[in-house]
Amino acid sequence: MSEYELSRLIDTAFRVYEFILIARVLMSWVPDMERTSLGQFLYKITEPYLKYFRRFIPPLGPIDISPIVAIFTLILIQAGLETVLRSIL
């Protein structure tokens, strides 16, 4: 696997997970959407990551800002990982 292919694979994986996190947030605004099979699937793959941030960032009333911080952190991790990989490869 070339350096370019590895970089694209990592970029794609991070972007897909970012999209999944955004979909989870949007689904929380639709009543009963979390009870669907899609909602349950998104919950299962995003909750472990979001739970980590909720330990440190409690909801502000009815607004949960932990997904915003989680997505921002994911973007920073992606950028850092790509920088490290480029310096190694």
UniProtKB/TrEMBL annotation:
Coiled-coil parts of chain: none
Q: Name the Pfam families on file.
A: CCB3_YggT (PF02325)
A single GO CC term for this protein reads: membrane
Q: Which family does it belong to?
A: Belongs to the YggT family.
Q: What is this protein called?
A: YggT family protein
Which species is the source of this protein? Answer: Effusibacillus lacus
